[in-house]
Write a structure and sequence with these properties.
alpha/beta, 11-stranded parallel beta sheet, 3 helices, 32% strand, elongated
């Protein structure tokens, strides 16, 4: 009898340790992948290989203020076009070094403009100065600007890759905004813009940060960022067809955001949750593929009256969780039933697991003594 009891204890403890170690290893692998930045710090000596950019020419930083600024810029021979819908001003095929961390500048800064213009096929880098304090630089910075097309540029190794503030009716498409000190693409108090087909990977904070209303964010790749793939704080934004993976915290992060539509996105291998809502109401979260995230597929906190339907949630530590929520509806989410996990022991429940194992060991030990 004593021999059998001892064997049971040993088996139970061994099984518990195996489960714990496997959970820890899986969690660490995901977190390590999401936090793998290909650089450790920024340097004034960063440079690009310009030999492959034979059609481009090196330019000094560009600053344009107002519609009259465009006229002066064209008269100086710096761009083509006339600023109309059919004949926009065009800045293209330039390489611009922002000057680094000491007294550097925005590579291209345009403000107070509502004429039509295009920035195309430019390589913009090293705009990382923080002087004067609080005025952070960008590869492309638009302030109070309408009617622009920003297409096929490389805005990497800057403080912000592409930055919009107070901007409306702009298109940001097919750009690369990687390895920036804050956001790849940052939209601040800006409405009715299209952000489509961009790559925003390996940025220190978010791949795409959207602080505005009625923006259309589609077909972007936002992976390996230090916080979230896409961060939204605004109303009536539409997120569709984005590929989001290996971000350190959440795939899609909605905070104080209402009436947004999150549909047909692929969200995987993020460090905590696939889709996270906090203080966000009346959102539609439909037909997303959310898999292999370290904690929950969809996490709701202080968020009410959201519709979560038609999503595929697989191999996350848990399907859904609600904290202090009311009126959310869950339907047609495949095999992932509300409040049911995927059969994987969550890594964050290690203390619970230890407690259960301890209780079992104590009970069996008492039986062993009696026998």
């Amino acid at each position: 009898m004593k021999s059998n009891a001892k064997s049971k204890i040993i088996i139970l403890i061994t099984i518990g340790i195996v489960f714990i170690l496997s959970t820890i290893n899986n969690t660490n692998l995901i977190l390590d992948a999401g936090n793998s930045f290909p650089y450790s710090e920024y340097s004034d000596d960063i440079s690009f290989n310009k030999e492959n950019l034979k059609t481009s020419q090196v330019s000094k930083p560009i600053y344009i203020d107002g519609n009259s600024g465009w006229v002066d810029f064209k008269n100086d021979g710096n761009c083509s076009g006339s600023g109309t819908h059919s004949d926009p001003y065009v800045i293209e095929d330039l390489i611009i070094d922002g000057g680094g961390s000491k007294n550097g500048e925005n590579c291209i800064w345009i403000e107070n403009s509502n004429v039509y213009f295009t920035i195309e096929n430019c390589t913009l880098y090293n705009a990382i100065s923080q002087f004067p304090p609080g005025e952070y630089k960008a590869g492309i910075k638009l302030s109070n600007v309408n009617n622009s097309l920003i297409i096929m540029n490389n805005c990497s190794l800057t403080y912000y890759g592409i930055y919009l503030s107070g901007c409306y009716h702009n298109i940001i498409a097919r750009n690369t905004a990687d390895m920036n000190y804050r956001f790849g693409i940052g939209i601040i108090v800006s409405n009715n813009n299209i952000i489509s087909g961009n790559t925003a990977n390996n940025n220190m904070l978010d791949g795409i940060s959207c602080g505005g209303n009625s923006n259309f964010i589609s077909g972007n790749n936002a992976s390996n960022n230090g916080v979230s793939g896409i961060y939204v704080y605004g109303f009536n934004n539409f997120l569709s067809g984005n590929a989001i993976s290996f971000n350190t915290v959440n795939g899609i992060n909605l905070v104080d955001s209402h009436r947004n539509k999150i549909t047909e996105n692929s969200i995987s291998y993020d460090g905590t949750n696939g889709i996270y809502l906090e203080g966000s109401n009346w959102n539609d979260i439909k037909e997303n593929n959310v898999f292999n995230n370290s904690q929950f597929g969809i996490y709701l906190k202080n968020s009410d009256d959201n519709i979560i339907s038609g999503n595929i949630l697989q191999e996350n530590d848990g399907c859904f969780i609600e904290i202090d929520c009311e009126g959310n509806t869950f339907s047609d989410n495949g095999d992932c039933i509300y409040n049911q996990d995927d059969g994987i022991i969550p890594g964050y429940n290690l203390f619970v697991l230890f407690g259960i194992l301890s209780v079992v060991v104590i009970i069996l030990s008492k039986k062993l003594k009696k026998s």
